[in-house]
Structure formats: C-alpha cells, structure tokens
Amino acid sequence: MWWGEISVPDASAVRIAEEIGSQYEVGAPPWMSTEIFFRWLRGFDEYISSKNGRKVLLFLDDASWHGRPSEQPALNDVRVEFLLKLTTLLLQPQDLGIIACLKRRYQLCQRGVDLIGDGHFENICRVDLNIAITWVYDIWDRIEIQIIHNCWLKSMSV
Predict the structure, then answer these.
(1) Is the link from the previous residue into 29 a cis peptide, with omega within 30 of 0?
(2) pLDDT tens column, 48-80
(3) Secondary structure class of 60 (helix, strand, coil)
(4) Rounded to an integer, what distance in angstroms lies between the CA atom of residue 148 and that of residue 129?
C-alpha cells in the first residue's frame, strides 16, 4: 500500500501500484490511519473470499492504526489476532533488518538522484510517486534470501 497527500496522483503511478498488487491511498497527514487500514483489511478479506474456501489468520502488532480488538470490522475469511504488547521486536523479523535493508537501499537510490542532479539535497524531493513505487518494487524483489533467513534466525533466538 502506498499513501500520501496527493489527492490525484500521476495515473501511471496508480497503474503501476495496481500492477504489483498494491494500492494508493490519500491521507493528510500522509501516514497510516485506522480508517485506511480498515479499508485495506476489508479489501483483503474480499480478495481472500474470492479464492474459494481460503481462510487467513492475520497477526497484528500494537500499532495504533490497527485499532483495538473490539474495533475490528466484521470479516468473513480473515481472522485477526493481536500479538502481545511490546513484542514486535521479538516476533517480527521484518523490524529486525528486512525493512531496514529496504530503507537503506531506497536511500541509496535517492542519493543517486541527488548526485545526478546539481548536488543539492532538495532534488531528492523531485522523485515522483511512479519512480518511488518502481524503486521499492525492484529493491524488494532483489533482497537476498539470506537477509530474510538471518532475520528469522535472529527473531527465533531472542
């Protein structure tokens, strides 16, 4: 999922997001909210329901936008369970290195744009949504299996 303040993003960016199985959401400020998360969750439930008999158990951490267990929307084929509070670091290997790796590589792409430009840091802000989606998709696709494996091992040993 991509979200930002642009209420009418570049049509090609929306198309690319849809092609990779993602979506673009508008929010001000441009970060996740309970409303956006619940809209995504209902859409995910509809997608799973279309898969004829599939069921999903989805574990969520205590991020504020996930809402409380009593606030969860009615779902047909997705069951939501919450991890114990403050266990994210112990139980979610993505937070131990996978997402950090993705962020580092994305920042390298940004710095590359800065070096190609006139050397001013503000050029990084000129990367449009289309380019950002393409970068993240390509970076995610190239993260080595060993990085993911090591993060899982680290989470199992904590």
Answers:
(1) yes
(2) 999 888 899 998 888 888 898 889 999 999 999
(3) strand
(4) 27
Residues 13, 14, 15, 19: what is their CA dihedral angle, to the nearest 10 degrees? Answer: 100
Q: What are phi and psi of 3, to 5 degrees?
A: -145, 155
pTM of the model: 0.56
Q: What DSSP state is assigned to residue 54?
A: -
Task: Please state, rounded to an integer, the average pLDDT across all residues of the chain.
Answer: 75
- CA 114 – CA 87 distance, rounded (Å): 38
Two tokens, residue 26: 């508008």
CB 58 within 8 A of CB 80: yes
b/e map of 90-126 (b: 16 or more CB within 10 Å)?
eebbeebbbeebbeebbeebbeeebeeeeeeeeeeee
Q: What is the pLDDT of residues 101-137, one digit of tens each?
A: 888 888 888 777 655 555 555 545 566 777 777 888 8
Best CA proximity match to 64, nearest among 23, 26, 35: 35
